[in-house]
Design brief:
This protein is α+β, with helices and mostly antiparallel strands. The chain is built from 7 helices and 4 strands. The two termini are 28 Å apart.
């Protein structure tokens, strides 16, 4: 069973102690889903200040009426984590959500499918934005490679990925299993190849030329998206 902590009915001053209490009770690798009625930005900053390197912050829904975030306790408590570790964890997490989505489509549970797809799409778009707006500019600045480098290729592939997301969305809304499975097959193939290139080339290279402080900065910024 998923642990869910819905703080919407709690008095504001009770919320943070309850949230940090729930986090402290998590075993390594466990997570809970926080449900709130506003963007929990101050909470994220408090986590970054008080639990640096100990937690994952993965938004699942960002308004307009509810905000949901999966907050996990990392298996290893290490503030000096690499970008490869952070970004790869997100790839794996997104793969799991996508599998859940495909399972729901197969069983024609369209409401579940639609919810799973919203989480997947939000997560993947945030991930792409962490790359294009935060990580790639640093990579391009440090290497001087723009038009001819790996980030150029990755940006092109992101365009294809986003188009496939739109197409899966449309087929899911239309409850069209063959449309979903066709586009799902294509996005899964595209992502497998794309993620592999990032995990084996782009992320490790970024780790190699960025300082520990720069890496931490990129991760903190990515969490605020
Ligand atoms: Fe990417
Ligand atoms: Fe990626």
């Amino acid at each position: 069973m998923e642990k869910i902590l819905d703080v919407r009915a709690m008095a504001p001053k009770e919320r943070h102690p309850k949230i940090f209490g729930t986090f402290k009770d998590l075993a390594p690798g466990e997570y809970f889903i926080l449900v709130n009625d506003h963007e929990p930005r101050p909470l994220l900053y408090q986590f970054q200040n008080e639990h640096d390197g100990e937690f994952e912050w993965w938004p699942l829904e960002q308004g307009p009426t509810a905000w949901r975030v999966a907050i996990a306790r990392r298996k290893t408590n290490d503030p000096k984590r690499t970008l490869t570790d952070y970004m790869q964890s997100d790839h794996m997490r997104l793969d799991r959500i996508f599998n859940r989505f495909q399972e729901a489509v197969k069983e024609k549970r369209w409401d579940d499918a639609s919810g799973d797809f919203r989480e997947f799409s939000l997560g993947l778009r945030r991930h792409i934005s962490a790359e294009e707006d935060i990580l790639f500019p640093v990579f391009e600045e440090k290497t001087g490679m723009r038009e001819s480098g790996p980030t150029f290729v990755m940006r092109m592939e992101h365009k294809d990925i986003k188009e496939l997301l739109d197409s899966i969305r449309a087929s899911t809304d239309g409850k069209d299993p063959s449309g979903v499975s066709d586009a799902s097959y294509r996005i899964a193939n595209t992502l497998a190849d794309h993620n592999m290139k990032e995990e084996h080339i782009l992320y490790p290279e970024s780790d190699a030329f960025m300082s520990e402080a720069e890496r931490a900065q990129v991760i903190k910024k990515a969490q605020t998206l």
